[in-house]
Amino acid sequence: MTAEPLAPRLPPIEQLNRLGEPDFADRLTLLFESAPRLAAALSKERPFASYDALLDRAEAIVAALPEREQVEIVNAHPRIGEDAASVRRTSAQSYREQGYDREAALDREQVERAYRDLDALNRAYEARFGFRFVVFVDGRPKAQIVDVMRARLDHPHQEEMATALRDMLLIARDRLRSLAPP
Fold first, then answer.
1. Dihedral angle at the C-alpha atoms of 98, 104, 105, 111, nearest 10 degrees?
2. What is the pTM of this model?
3. Are 25 and 58 in contact (CB under 8 A)?
4. Do the beta carbons of residue 43 and residue 78 sit within 8 Å?
């Protein structure tokens, strides 16, 4: 019997503050996925008194970025409904958060319908807004996310960008609760 690999953990904030920029950016992928411009901006702001202070600063930095850089940060998150193996390779956190590991217990036909809907909605969303759909899943099944995505397709562009960035930061704050050092 093999043990499950230990979930990644963030280092204590004092240790994170002392890391070189590449290692600092690497650790931040646990919170933000791969967002090099955000990591570089946060690196310049060190030291942080806490991870909450780091996330508060990230929120302010993201809000002040030009839209093309905001898009880069949003697009760091894998598409919801993307191929499970691809998501697992790129982001173990997103894989768990999006419920891929719980789908075996669900009705196969409903899961397949949700994937078809998400594929079409992802294409429509990205064509309309020019960036990926990001949502704080918070344990909801993909079938519920389909309805959220449909509703958000009607949002004005700026409102949708603000929603995507807000949800990206909600994801990071949620991840902090599970990844923070003891």
1. 60
2. 0.82
3. no
4. no
Rounded Cα gap, residues 93 and 160, in angstroms = 23
At residue 118, φ and ψ (nearest 5 deg) are -65, -40
Closest CA to 162 of 138, 129, 137, 139: 129
What are the tokens at 94? 């997103």
- Domains in the chain with CATH codes: 13-67 (no CATH), 74-179 (1.10.3330.10)
Tokens of 160: 């949708």
Residue bearing tokens 């003891």: 182
Q: Residue 140 and residue 7: Cα distance in Å, rounded?
A: 21
Handedness of CA 60, 61, 67, 71 (dihedral sign): negative
pLDDT digits (tens, 9 = 90+) for 78-118: 888 766 556 556 655 555 665 555 555 556 777 688 888 98
